[in-house]
Each structure stands twice: as structure tokens, then as C-alpha cells.
Design goal:
Helix content is 14%, strand content 34%. With 137 residues, the protein is of the alpha+beta class. The protein has a single domain, classed as Ubiquitin-like (UB roll) (Roll). β3 and β4 form a beta hairpin.
């Protein structure tokens, strides 16, 4: 039996990606993927201690807790680990309007960072108006 894949010991593989694990953030109610971030050990520990999602900013090279400035926080309901223990899934409850720094044409914070899809035939981006209109359901 492969204990990394089938065991109960937490052995996160931070060293695979230079100390970072990708984190998929999913809304607990409804299952919508809100964003993807990265966590180092310190960010994960802070997230588990406070129950609010903290990430490592790859652009600013610092820790950041979602919502510190915007007020749109991510309350962690559960944390899942993938089979290889090298990726995480945060299931969250959104406290606020949304997670994205981009806003709608009306100036409203977008609920999720995934609000456009690729039209495979034309290879262009298409806005998903349904996601914007159902933002606060």
C-alpha cells in the first residue's frame, strides 16, 4: 500500500513546486470554483488556525489573507488534499460579494475569477452572463 496515497498521515509535498501547493477554492454551497491560489506552509498553517483562506502571493512574494482590504473573505469549511498530496482544495463560504479583483461593467466585484470561457471554435473569450447575474445567489 502506498501510504502517501492511501494513508492517513498528512505529508504535503511542498518541495515538488518550490515550497508552494496550488489551491483550488470552491464555494461549499453550489460547488462553483471561485479562484486558484498558492499556499506555502505558513499560509496553510494560518488558514487552518484562523479558518480564513490565506495564500502566498506569487506576484508580491508575501502572505495575504483574502478579504483583508476588500472585506470579501473566504471562511474555510473544509480542506481537501489530492491523491499525491501536492494540491489542495479549500471548500469555503463566501463572506462578501466575490473573490475576483476584476469588476463587472456595473462596477460590482465578480463572484469568481472564472467568468469567461474559451469558445473553442473561434478561439475567443466569451463572458458568462449567467455567472454575473447569479452572483449573490
Amino acid at each position: 500500500m502506498n501510504l502517501l496515497e492511501e494513508g492517513t498521515e498528512l505529508d504535503l509535498q511542498f518541495e515538488k513546486r518550490n515550497g508552494l501547493l496550488p489551491v483550488v477554492v470552491q464555494e461549499q454551497q453550489g460547488g462553483q470554483v471561485l479562484m486558484i491560489g498558492y499556499a506555502n506552509q505558513e499560509a496553510l498553517q494560518r488558514s487552518m488556525k484562523t479558518r480564513y483562506a490565506t495564500f502566498w502571493s506569487t506576484s508580491r512574494q508575501e502572505l495575504w489573507t483574502k478579504g483583508e482590504t476588500s472585506g470579501d473573505r473566504l471562511r474555510i469549511a473544509s480542506i481537501w488534499v489530492d491523491c499525491d498530496q501536492d494540491a489542495l482544495l479549500y471548500q469555503v463560504q463566501l463572506e462578501g460579494n466575490g473573490v475576483c479583483h476584476a469588476k463587472t461593467h456595473e462596477g460590482i466585484t465578480r463572484k469568481a475569477c472564472f467568468y469567461r470561457r474559451i469558445n473553442i471554435d473561434s478561439q475567443s473569450l466569451v463572458f458568462d452572463d449567467l455567472l454575473d447575474t447569479k452572483q449573490n445567489d
